[in-house]
Amino acid sequence: MAKGLIEFTPKGMYVPLADVYIDPSAAVEKAFLTHAHSDHARPGSSVYFAHYQSAPILKHRLGNPQISSYQYGESLMVNGVKFSFHPSGHVPGSAQIRVEYNGEIWVAGGDYKVENDGLSIPFEPVKCHTFITESTFGLPIYQWQKQELVFNQINEWWKANQEKKMASVIFAYSLGKAQRILQNVNHEIGEVYVHGSIANMNEACEAAGFKLKPWKILNSGIGKESTKTALIIAPPSAAGTTWLNKLEPYSDAVASGWMAVRGSRRRLSADKGFVLSDHADWDGLNYAVEASGAKKIIVSHGFTAAYARWLNEQGYEAIEEGLSFSEE
Ligand SMILES: [Zn+2]
After folding, report:
1. Alpha-carbon span 256 to 234, nearest angstrom
2. Angle, nearest 10°, between helix axes 196-207 and 55-62?
3. From the CA of 54, how far away is ligand 1's center (Å)?
4. Lowest mean pLDDT among 3-12, 18-27, 158-167, 287-296
5. Of residues 167, 237, 162, the one with CA closest to residue 198
6. Neighbours of 25 (CB within 10 A)
7. CA–CA separation, 203 vs 217, rounded Å?
8. Cα–ligand 1 centroid distance for 316 (angstroms)
């Protein structure tokens, strides 16, 4: 158990001096949120503190709760403890949370990636004494290609399907990955349609100030003539459901970091897998840890044991904590 500015409790990360939680797993009085993914942003807390671009998304996801929102770098004091949000490059509105008291600085990295995805504000290292890092892909086997190469592959697949008069359905998380695909595919190829749950997220992102490329909601009024040349972005939960029937014939694909693991695509029974993650790969994690300047590292979720062991071998004082965040 790490005792310090941020402690690890059954409800998640806790700042005892300020009596606030970071990404709590249960309802609390004051919840600071790194981002709006459902495994980090749980309903029921009295007040949420988040980056302002997360606010419209949180309103949509959590049923219009009380939200206090901030710019990146803007600070607020709670019981003499200074808090601020800094870009984590994970999804729209995502942040690392910096906590300072009496000259001691801790940073909770939340989920992050270091590559600029063309959508989220890019990751910025924040100097601190203790850095709390994720390790979702914290093994040396995880090495991402530059995203333009991945989007070239996605564009080629889309074009090949068009030639066969097949619709192209790509499964991606509704917040972050879906908009990242929308922003980076080649819109000269054809039109992009989205599932209703992604349309809701797109609207929340637009309300937060993101200028998204053209998209249309796929509703019952859209005929096959329109979809057979289109790219359709759908959430993973739509895979294997009757929602897809109206799109026949189609080819489907999954965009996820887990596509780097042999057999993942087959298990999801999709035609194609694209390795595209909103988390740092092995080199990205090591870059972020080094750039934080911290000597003490707490590995909060992912391959915690393996990554903490490796950091210790590199001379860091690293320990693991087992927070249960699951979304990719
Ligand atoms: Zn996340």
Report:
1. 13
2. 140
3. 12
4. 3-12
5. 237
6. 17
7. 11
8. 25
Residue where the block lists tokens 């009380």: 66
Distance 322 CA to ligand 1 centre (A): 16
pLDDT-derived band at 326 (thresholds 50, 70, 90) equals low
Domain map (residue ranges) of the chain: 7-141+279-320, 147-274
C-beta atoms surrounding 240 within 10 Å: 12
Q: What is the C-alpha separation between 202 and 129, in angstroms, rounded? A: 37
Tell me how far the alpha carbon of residue 267 lies from the centroid of ligand 1, in angstroms.
22
Ligand 1 centre from 176 Cα, in Å? Answer: 9
The model's pLDDT over 135-146, given as tens digits with 9 standing for 90+, comes to 999 999 999 999
Residue identified by tokens 């897809």 is 244
CATH topology of domain 147-274: Rossmann fold (3.40.50)
CB-based contacts of 27: which residues, under 8 Å, 6+ apart?
Answer: 42, 43, 44, 45, 46
Cβ proximity of 302 and 134 under 8 Å: yes
Cα dist. 126→4, 80, 120, 168, 291 in Å? Answer: 18, 20, 17, 40, 8
- The per-residue pLDDT of the chain, averaged, comes to 94
7-141+279-320 and 147-274 share one fold:
no
Q: Give start and end residues of each alpha helix (H) in 270-318.
A: 282-291, 304-313
Q: In angstroms, what is the span from residue 166 Cα to ligand 1's centroid?
A: 32
Single-letter residue type at 168: S
CATH 3.60.15.10 describes domain 7-141+279-320: yes
Neighbours of 122 (CB within 10 A): 14
φ, ψ at 273 (rounded to 5°): -130, 130
Classified as helix, coil or strand, 224 is helix
Using a cut of 0.90, tell me whether the model's pTM lies above it. Answer: yes
